[in-house]
Amino acid sequence: MDLNELTDRMHRFVEAKGWYQPDSPKPQSPRNLAASLVIEAAEVLELYQWQEACADKEALADELADVALYLLQLASVGGVDLEAAILRKLERNYGRSW
Asked: What span, in angstroms and rounded, lies between the C-alpha atoms of 41 and 57?
């Protein structure tokens, strides 16, 4: 499955929940999606709080999936071709000094 297929599945889920409706209690605006992305990333970090390794791999997988889903949605709603953006960024990073 590629990023486009994952994005389509994510949109079908959000539509099925009614979250794209104008009167949704969970408006899917770029700002709200960006906030949700950061909140989910913090939940990944929480799994490592006070320890160097995550003891619960299933919980880690769930939180990483949440991050990925919000990232895909934010990119799509924002009109960003995430696959192309990732490839461009990787290419730029090869030329950077760290």
From this structure: 15
Buried b (16+ CB within 10 A) or exposed e, 26-46: eebeeeebeebbeebbebbee
Residue type at position 89: K
Give the rounded distance of the alpha carbon of 35 from its chain centre: 11
Per-residue model confidence as pLDDT tens digits over 20-41: 999 999 999 999 999 999 999 9
pTM, two decimals, is 0.92
- Whether 67 maps to a domain, the answer reads yes
Its domain, for residue 88, covers 3-92
Distance, in Å, from the CA atom of 95 to the CA atom of 67, rounded to the nearest integer, reads 28
Query: At residue 3, what is the residue type?
Result: L
